[in-house]
């Protein structure tokens, strides 16, 4: 569970517990919403969840590259990245990078929603 999801759950619990107007519960709720809207939140994801529009952190330099394409291959993923006018094509995962560190874009957030829906089902 991500820090943003935890913030939303805590805000919802505080909202539900309140019996009268409680500025603290309102503050938690709005803080959680702000956390979800923060595009700069880094998170670790599986390479299969990477999507165009995400910003991928370089393990070597710490610089974020825009993901412009992701193609599944037999031995991993071929990922097109761009930083300014410079483009590169990389293959992941590697031993040095078993997971991706990203700032999610709109498509990535939609992927997260589907992962949550399909992984939280009943029996």
Question: Could you please describe the fold and organization of this structure?
Answer:
- 36% of the residues lie in helices and 29% in strands.
- It is elongated, with a radius of gyration of 18 Å.
- A hairpin with a 2-residue loop joins strand 3 (64-73) and strand 4 (76-83).
- With 123 residues, the chain is an alpha+beta fold.
- It has helices at residues 3-17, 23-37, 106-119, and strands at 42-45, 55-57, 64-73, 76-83, 86-92, 100-103.
* CATH-assigned fold name of the largest domain: SH3 type barrels
Overall spatial form: elongated
Biggest β-sheet description: 6 strands, antiparallel
Record the strand order, biggest sheet.
1-6-2-3-4-5
Based on CA atoms alone, the radius of gyration comes out at: 18 Å
Number of strands: 6
CATH architecture group name of the largest domain: Roll
The CATH class designation of the largest domain is Mainly Beta
Gap from first CA to last CA = 20 Å
The stretches of 5 or more residues where confidence is low (pLDDT under 50) are: none
Backbone structural class: alpha+beta
Strand content: 25-35%
Overall mean pLDDT stands at 81
Task: List the total number of helices.
Answer: 3
SSE topology string: HHEEEEEEH
How much helix is in the residues? Answer: 25-40%
Structural domain tally: 2
């Amino acid at each position: 569970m991500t820090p943003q999801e935890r913030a939303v759950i805590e805000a919802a619990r505080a909202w539900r517990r309140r019996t009268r107007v409680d500025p603290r519960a309102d503050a938690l709720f709005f803080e959680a919403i702000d956390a979800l809207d923060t595009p700069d939140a880094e998170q670790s994801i599986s390479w299969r969840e990477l999507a165009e529009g995400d910003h991928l952190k370089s393990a070597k330099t710490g610089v974020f590259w825009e993901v412009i394409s992701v193609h599944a291959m037999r031995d991993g993923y071929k990922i097109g990245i761009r930083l300014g006018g410079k483009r590169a094509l990389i293959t992941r995962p590697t031993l040095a990078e078993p997971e991706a560190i990203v700032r999610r874009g709109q498509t990535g957030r939609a992927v997260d929603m589907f992962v949550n829906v399909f992984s939280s089902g009943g029996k």
